[in-house]
Design brief:
Elements: H1 3-6, H2 12-58, H3 62-72, E1 83-89, E2 92-105, E3 108-119
Antiparallel strand pairs: 1-2, 2-3
Helix pairs in contact: 2-3
């Protein structure tokens, strides 16, 4: 095989490497922006469960759960306009939280929608 046949192949490995690196960097950057928001939401779900269980076990009113979640909201990056509704339904404490957090990617804004309902566990009811 002559060298002339391979001239069209020059640089193709570099180009493929560059494309792969750009894709990896874009995915890494997207993860860098998204993962902290998703992790905070995961921790807030856990907090919601703890608060409804505590309220049910200690006999606190439904408003206590809402007050506790509002106080803790800043620690979990929950927006101040989050909709928090706590009720006593069918003998169980329940709280529902809804909010939207924008995640700004270059050229695109993703709306992270949080909508979770936590119910107290049944064995804690008096």
């Amino acid at each position: 095989m002559e060298m002339r046949d391979r001239q069209s192949e020059r640089g193709s490995a570099r180009l493929k490497f560059l494309i792969v690196m750009i894709i990896i960097a874009a995915v890494g950057y997207a993860g860098y922006l998204y993962v902290p928001v998703a992790y905070s939401a995961y921790l807030y779900k856990d907090l919601m469960q703890q608060k409804v269980d505590t309220a049910a076990a200690l006999g606190h009113p439904a408003n206590w759960v809402k007050d506790q979640l509002v106080k803790s909201g800043a620690d979990y990056d929950v927006p101040a306009d989050a909709e928090i509704v706590s009720t006593l339904k069918e003998g169980r404490m329940e709280v529902q939280v809804q909010f939207t957090r924008p995640i700004e990617f270059p050229g695109y804004v993703y709306e992270y929608n949080f909508d979770h309902t936590a119910h107290s566990t049944e064995f804690l009811l008096k």
